[in-house]
Design goal:
Helices cover about 5% and strands about 0% of the residues. By secondary structure, it is largely without helices or strands. The longest helix has 7 residues.
């Protein structure tokens, strides 16, 4: 239930599908369960907000601030989040299939058990992110920074990771079958392993 405890730029009845909420300040708001499908939230401040179970499918969130917000079990399928700030945001069990997150700030984000199938995360900063058991099948992570991220049991099959940085990442039981790993930066062994051989020695699955 939406609960706007303090004064905000909008009223409760404006929290609705297809709403125009560009640039509004909703920091710290309780928007649990709200339906914001196709809403325009570009440059909005949703930092520290409770967004559990929210429907943000196909919403526009370019340059929005969602830092440290809680989006457990939310629907962000096909949402547009380019350049958004999701620093330390919690999205466990959320649906981000085919979402656009290019150039987003995702350090310390939690994508644990999330569906990111077909999502675009090109050039994203995902340092120390929690991506445990996430589905990134056919996702785009070219030139993404995944340094020291937890990728345990994540599914990257068919994903594009060209030029991504996996240095120090925990890739045990992660699935890179048929993934594009050209130019991937990883903890290469001194014995001139290929990238695939290096990932395999670190516990990843790379063969069909």
């Amino acid at each position: 239930m939406v609960d706007l405890e303090k004064e905000y730029d909008v009223s409760e009845n404006e929290i609705a599908p297809d709403a125009d909420l560009q640039g509004v300040d909703l920091s710290g708001a309780n928007l649990k369960g709200a339906n914001l499908k196709e809403a325009d939230l570009r440059e909005a401040d949703l930092s520290n907000a409770n967004l559990e179970g929210v429907n943000l499918s196909e919403a526009i969130l370019f340059d929005a601030n969602l830092a440290k917000s809680r989006l457990y079990s939310s629907n962000l399928s096909k949402a547009r989040l380019s350049r958004a700030n999701l620093h330390a945001t919690k999205l466990k069990n959320s649906n981000l299939s085919r979402a656009g997150l290019d150039d987003a700030e995702l350090e310390y984000v939690s994508f644990e058990d999330c569906n990111l199938k077909g999502a675009s995360l090109s050039r994203c900063y995902l340092k120390s992110a929690n991506i445990v058991r996430a589905n990134l099948k056919h996702a785009y992570l070219d030139d993404a920074n995944l340094k020291e991220a937890d990728l345990w049991e994540a599914n990257f099959s068919g994903a594009n990771l060209e030029g991504a940085n996996l240095t120090g990442a925990d890739i045990r039981l992660a699935d890179f079958t048929h993934a594009n790993v050209r130019g991937v930066k990883s903890d290469m062994a001194p014995s001139n392993y290929t990238v695939l051989e290096d990932l395999e020695t670190r516990g990843a699955k790379v063969r069909p």
